[in-house]
Each structure stands twice: as structure tokens, then as C-alpha cells.
Specification:
With 236 residues, the chain is an alpha/beta fold. The chain has 2 domains: 149 residues, Alpha/beta knot, CATH 3.40.1280.10; 59 residues, Trp Operon Repressor, Chain A. The protein has 7 helices and 9 strands. α3 packs across α5 and α6 packs across α7. The radius of gyration is 22 Å and the shape is elongated. The termini are far apart. The structure holds S-adenosyl-L-homocysteine. The site of S-adenosyl-L-homocysteine (SAH) has 19 residues, from β5.
Length: 236
């Protein structure tokens, strides 16, 4: 059985969207992964097919009802991890992507409006994840971001041409910069060491560049990298 993603959304027509192209799209065609998209509205029970209501306590916007969302989850739940996309969640990371890629698949719950009644998130033990510190208008793009990051890690999706072994975050570091022909362009030369054919020197340069970039751009990642178990004994 291939890795399987279920999406619960009020806008099913948004899928597969960008996941139907390039690496993820080819893997979908080759059945390395599969996708089903369920409209949350199909789980509504009243004659108006309503999915939301006004928030208790007042305030702007609408909240997705717990009974409707619970029925939508129940229609697809089979033991796969359930993720609720929300800016209130813990930040989604490359480690999460690896963890999901190693499992049977995921069920992704996409909110809209003000969000989802918290009781159904708790009752269904959904893992609340955010893709970053900004507010989107719905969880669909966030679900696509998560799926893109996971699907490329599935066995057979990336060839040697798109290797994941050295890339950013795989060792708590940002990746080193890349260069290709021509060796000189608009007066800018590729670093000499990359033309030297000296593999050990190239590796050392790439490691140093990865460390410098991470230190300069992402003090948070740098601090994590410098704390055990990575830190060399006696390093300053
Ligand atoms: N009132 C909410 C925001 C709702 S945005 C709050 O302030 O926390 C509407 C929906 O978009 C959310 O239910 C969620 O599913 C999705 N969403 C918005 N920003 C997101 C983010 N950074 N990561 C993941 N999902 C997000």
C-alpha cells in the first residue's frame, strides 16, 4: 500500500493543485503516494448543510462546528496521524517531515474562517502544527506545504539528481551555496576550491560555508547545532 494522505477541507477543488506537478506530481502518477480529498460540508447534517457558527464569548468571524468536523474525521480515520493545520500549533519542521514520511500517511485537517472548535481537536488527539509565524486564510496551502516536504522524502521519489542527504536542516545546518557553469559570469568567479577537484578540500569548504551561513542567518539553528550532541569537545 502506498503512502496515503487524506485532506479534510471546505475547498476540495484546490487539490492536488501544485502537488500535481513536478516531483510530487510524478510520484502521484507513479502511485508512490495517493491522495483523497473530502469536503467537510459532506458531513453536515442540517438541511442548510451548515458547517460553522458564531463564536461563544463573542467576537468576529465563524468557527467550524465540532460535530461536523468530527464526522468528517470519522469518515477517513484509520490510525494514520491526524494533523490540524493552525497558526496556534508547534512549528512544522524537517524532523516532522521525516517522521510522517516513515509512517503510513497522514490525515490533514484544514481550517477556515476563525478556525475549528478546540474540543474536536482535543477529542481526536490531533497534532496541531503551524507552517510559520503568519496567518493564512485557510489550512489548504499549509497542508500542501507539509505534503510537499513529506512526499519528496518517500523512497523512490527523489533520484540521485535531487538528493536529500546534505540539504538544509538535515544536520541542523543550512546548506552551503551552489554554483554551476560558466566558471566566471559577469566578472564573478566560482570559489577556486570547487574547481580544484580536491574532494576533502571541497567538503571542508562546504562545511565551513554551511556553518557560516547558519551562524549569520539563523542564530536559533546555530545554537541548537552548537549544543550537544553536535558540538566538538572543547570547541569555543
Ligand atoms: N483565528 C486564527 C486564524 C485562523 S486562519 C488565529 O488567530 O489563530 C484560518 C485557518 O487557516 C486556520 O484554521 C488554519 O487551518 C489555517 N492557517 C492559517 N495560518 C496558518 C499557519 N501559519 N499554519 C498552518 N495553518 C494556518
Amino acid at each position: 500500500m502506498s503512502w496515503h494522505a487524506s485532506i479534510l477541507t471546505l475547498f476540495p477543488e484546490m487539490f492536488p493543485g501544485p502537488l500535481g506537478s513536478s516531483l510530487a506530481g510524478r510520484a502521484l502518477e507513479r502511485a508512490i503516494w495517493s491522495l483523497d480529498v473530502r469536503n467537510i460540508r459532506d458531513s453536515a447534517t442540517d438541511r442548510h448543510r451548515s458547517v460553522d457558527d458564531t463564536p461563544f464569548g463573542g467576537g468576529a468571524g465563524m468557527v467550524l462546528r465540532p460535530d461536523v468536523v468530527d464526522a468528517a474525521i470519522g469518515a477517513v480515520a484509520d490510525g494514520r496521524p491526524l494533523v490540524c493545520l493552525t497558526p496556534r500549533g508547534r512549528r512544522f519542521t524537517q524532523a516532522d517531515a521525516s517522521r510522517f514520511a516513515a509512517g503510513p500517511g497522514v490525515i490533514l485537517l484544514c481550517g477556515r474562517y476563525e478556525g475549528i472548535d478546540q474540543r474536536v481537536i482535543e477529542a481526536r488527539c490531533a497534532e496541531e502544527l503551524s507552517i510559520g509565524d503568519y496567518v493564512l486564510s485557510g489550512g489548504e496551502l499549509a497542508a500542501m506545504v507539509l505534503l510537499d516536504a513529506v512526499v519528496r522524502l518517500l523512497p523512490g521519489v527523489m533520484g540521485a539528481a535531487e538528493s536529500a542527504t546534505e540539504e538544509s536542516f538535515s544536520a541542523d545546518l543550512l546548506e552551503y551555496p551552489h554554483y554551476t557553469r560558466p566558471a566566471e559570469w559577469q566578472g564573478r568567479r566560482v570559489p577556486d576550491v570547487l574547481l580544484s577537484g580536491h574532494h576533502a578540500a571541497v567538503s571542508a569548504w562546504r562545511q565551513a560555508e554551511a556553518e557560516r551561513t547558519t551562524r549569520e542567518r539563523r542564530p536559533d539553528l546555530w545554537a541548537a547545532y552548537r549544543s550537544p550532541p553536535h558540538a566538538a569537545p572543547g570547541a569555543p
